[in-house]
Amino acid sequence: MKKLLSLALVLMLAVSMLAGCTPNQSGETSESLPSAGASPTSSEAAPAEVSEEASEEAAAPTDATPPEEIRVSALKGPTAMGMVKLMQDTEDKAVTSPYTFAIGTTDEIVPKLSKGEIDIAAVPANLASVLYNNTEGKVQVLAINTLGVLYVVEKGDTVKSVADLKGKTIYATGKGATPEFALNYVLLQNGIDPTKDVTIEYKSEAAEIIPLMAQAENAIAIMPQPFVTVAGGKIPGLRVALDWTKEWDAVSAGKSSMVTGVVVVRKEFAETYPGAVAQFMTDYCASTSYTQTNVAEAAALVGKYGIVDAAVAEKALPACNITFIDGASMQEKLSGYLTVLSEQNPQSVGGKLPDEGFYYLP
Length: 362
Fold this sequence. Notes:
- There is one protein chain.
- This protein has 362 residues and is α/β, with parallel strands linked by helices.
- It has 14 helices and 11 strands.
- It has helices at residues 2-13, 78-81, 84-91, 106-114, 125-134, 178-189, 209-215, 227-234, 244-252, 267-272, 274-293, 295-304, 310-316, 327-344, and strands at residues 70-75, 99-104, 120-124, 139-147, 150-155, 169-173, 199-203, 220-224, 238-243, 259-266, 322-325.
- A 6-stranded mixed β-sheet has the order 2-1-3-10-4-11, sandwiched between helices. The protein has a 3-stranded antiparallel β-sheet with strand order 8-5-9. Strands 6-7 form a two-stranded parallel sheet.
- Strand 6, helix 6 (178-189) and strand 7 (199-203) form a beta-alpha-beta unit.
- Helix 12 (295-304) runs antiparallel to helix 13 (310-316).
- The longest helix is centred in the last third of the chain and has 20 residues, at 274-293.
- The relative contact order is 0.24.
């Protein structure tokens, strides 16, 4: 019964949120995403830059017996988008590692990862922490793959800063989960009490907000990509008012970053096949870089692999903050983010902050 309750907690708290590089060798609940390709609005946000640790590269480890298969999974949404070039390269036999890929839902990926049926997975950042705590340290984070994907949108031109949200009604998703915590954190840091100074109407998923926005005058919402892009194609006059990732950065004073998605590995797999993990990091980093710099081609692959409709992806990708951050920078940004979540609700990270073993630092 305890294990069933733990698994239910994992599923409830999971969030769909989500340039050339060299990995550092030193070391929605999954939402149903829209497939209709409307004419989405563009975002002012630029792709997140890929981060590298400024250190000398050590020789990659070599496995005595390489794995026969490396099973990789990801959720539909931004956390899977940086992986699409590697998926295509694997299909084309342009990489030598024996990857197999699957795009699934949280309730599919979590039990398989826990039972050792998946080796590497792209998942929401807080879910990685929950898994680490619930499995007694059997997963580790390799890298951050998606920074913040939340944006404030409005029909009108009244919101120029977070202060302008005071007294307004805001449609949102993720009650009791990380979207709520991210919203509350930035509001509070700007002197706005989310329980008194604004009215927040939570919906079960972002798709419910779009018709409400279409009907209401001067409506305001905070939504994740790619729903922002889809909404822009369906609601005349909708505009992106605030990039919540930038607003988070503005109030965190460098102590944390908004993190949507990470890539995790089973600790047993990493210990048995360090060379395979090092090669995956190199391959995945290159794939992420391709997604950032070849938007149209990457969007076509996003559509091909059933992650998001290609037309939507092409407009949304620049605002999805796809990235690759590993090593000490990964630990600093992710630990800061999880600390913010834990201070609001410890259960959002699995009851306690993960220890040093959570971070893969070879």
